[in-house]
Amino acid sequence: MEDDLLGDGFPFAEGVLDGKTALVCGASKGIGRATALALARSGCRVIVCARSTEELQELVSDMQGSGHEYFALDMEDLGSVSKFASVIGNIDILVNNSGGPPGGPLLENSVDDFSGPFARHLHASHILVKSLAPGMIEAGSGRIVNVISTSVREPIDNIGLSNTLRGAMASWAKSLSRELHPCITINNILPGFTDTDRLGNLANSISSKTGMEVEEVQANWMNSVPIERLIDPMETALAITWLCLPSSGAIRGVSLAVDGGRMRSI
Hints:
Blueprint: H1 2-6, E1 21-25, H2 30-41, E2 45-50, H3 53-62, E3 69-72, H4 78-87, E4 93-96, H5 115-139, E5 142-147, H6 160-177, E6 184-191, H7 197-210, H8 214-223, H9 233-243, E7 255-258
Helix pairs in contact: 2-9, 4-5, 5-6, 7-8
């Protein structure tokens, strides 16, 4: 499906984001990688970061257009994140995205277990927004999209630490939507069960902690999804791209689910 959506089925006008520069975090795989490809296809110059240099190099070579860059960056190293934000220049579009913590019952986590995930998600995102917002104001527009989870509305069993973290991200973003300059929008994407390595790792983690077979974990997930399939990362990436369009300036402070109808809440 990814090739179809990036090819003739691409839903946005060619060059709709020409002249824009986007920063996509956690871009080496999954939703982050698909988002970088979609934004480049829309005309953006894209800067990508993640820990894996080799995967980032491959991604840049796959992106349409020129001028794209990559930076190897550990989002838990907040000093490096601050330094990185101070040298990359003006950014028009910021996509905050990072892999979630391991699954398991919340009460099995120690207080220390919260530190790394909160650093690479909430704290790193806050540093980037504080650093990049002045440039967005100077340019007269900015788009910030946070990739979090449907668990901000309906907590998911056996990923209590992730549920807690994602809820904090959603409240942080909603607060910023009331404070940021009028020319900047900030919104959240809530992915459902998406065909990524992260989901496979999560199924294995839940299996090891609960004793359920991996196939049973996955079947339970699919039984709750009306479209009866995993979501392609490119489907989520195109929703992110839509939120970054100039015509999406009135959409601010929302949490948009791309979940195949899994959530029961309105």
